[in-house]
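Lab notebook page, bench 4
Experiment: in silico fold of construct C2
Operator: M.H.
Input chain length: 324 residues
Purpose: comparison with the prior construct
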Amino acid sequence: MTAARLSAFVAAALAVVLLLTQLPGASAQPASAATARFVALAADVTAADGHRYGLTDDTGATMDAAQIVQAGSGTYLAVYHTMSADGRFHSAVATSADLLHWQRRHDFGAGSSQPALAADGRGGYVLAYEKDPRNHIAVRAYDDLDALLTGRAAHRFDAPRTLSACAEGTPAITAVHGDTVELTGHYRAGCDTDRQLTATLKHFTTWSAAPDHRLDRAVERYGTSGNIGDRDRVGLAGEPMVLIEGQRWRDDFGSWSAYAYDPASGRADRVPLRTRGGSTSFANPSATRITDPGGHRALLVSLFIPAEGAAPGEAGQLVYWREL
């Protein structure tokens, strides 16, 4: 090999090495103890202590994008949406004693989707969802469990869109402090692609929202050029983490993945989910710590498996849990 060719070969090799080091991927070290714990517990669905694919309620309606919490009485509550016969999403709340069989209790109306629920610490609940037309975040407060299950809201607020002229939605409630509700959500950046926001609602009258570019960057590092959407906050190993979805390619529902994000470091780990059938796309992730039907402390995970990335028999809402 001539000196010129050798020099060209070395330059090409260096370029390849440089390119590989810049490709999106996980660090050798987990983002945090919490993200590592989540991956260890939740990545292998086949190791779950209980699970259900294609979750539906007692009316046969699909429980898409279900988020589950546990009431003080031990009853499990799920909020979710379903595409109804009128061609619109309807959000609903259902109750269960075993996480597998659900009784639909109340429909929050046409044009409501992506609901999220949180206890307010005073015996009541706060519900947030995306509402159309003019997709925006709606927040409702309920004085107690009975009021939630019958749809009797004590306070109502429909947030103005301040970050996007086209859409803001997919909310999650991170904290409720008296009359202050802290939320996250997404906004349609440039009326083109969903990106993350944080928001605060005070006294059900005053709303403020801001982009969360740090969270966006953590997921974009994996080559995510599509939407970055639904997310949920959970504590593990004594630390908080955020479970979030990212779409590798826009408009490709078979390219959704789940990531575990560490707010302290601003880094995220990809969650290498594995199902028995080998599904490849996972969206609308949520997680919470519960007491499972057997009385054990457990981590409950809820994921939507789009048909485009689903193995036979696995499409729709997946709920599973691992004992802690």
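Observations: The first helix runs from residue 3 to 22. Residues 1-24 have pLDDT under 50 and may be disordered.
Next step: discuss at group meeting.
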